[in-house]
Amino acid sequence: MHPVLFRIGPFELYTYGALLAVAFLAALYLAMREGKKVGVSEEFVADAGIVVILSSIVGARLFFILFYDLQNTLAHPAELLRLRQAGLVFYGGLIFAVVAGLVFCRLKRVSIPVVVDMAAPSIAIGQAIGRIGCFMSGCCYGKPTWVPWAVRFPTVDQQARHPTQIYESLATFAIFFALIWFRKRKTRDGQVMCLYAMLYATARFIIEFFRGDNPHIFFGLTISQMISVAVLAAAAVMAFVLWLPLSQKPAHADK
Question: Is the pTM of this model over 0.90?
């Protein structure tokens, strides 16, 4: 593992934080490029990006504290602001970011289906990069295993474990390319985000079986798996509506 990217005197740049910054910038750049194709201004994308990233950090941190670290945070309130290495839950960040983004779109009177389709590939590429930061930090590790590609995480113990961070990174890279391929073939705005939700929820549900840091709390499922089931169910309903022949409308064509 390489949790600290470099040190200059007392200053330390954490790899996790650095890669989160890279993930955000890559996602923002891609969203701006996609925005030009569908008539969404760069100013809107930049403003929305700031709203979304701040909301996602708050949501990801709150979910981690509520579901994984509540007692420790109550005993040590200063831990609330510890963002240097880990302590973030993706689904918490996604939920807060989606709500904030939808509100922002309504306030700016920008088409929500157009914006969510524009944002879906950006979310996927951001995840793919961000999970590499998790791997370098040693968080979100997997269960003990003896598969040839097993990794030892010194921050946990000396057992060889599934590199579940890499599993998710590869999965979201694959989802990113699938969305890029599909965006020119959609028949209605909203379908790209719907496909992202279905693919990611499925991938996350499967990967959670190999995670070694999340407790199984309900019928052998983790919190993230239960959220994945809910997301997949909601996305399936939305897919049924969006793919109904009678409900099809002309999609925003790429230019």
Answer: no
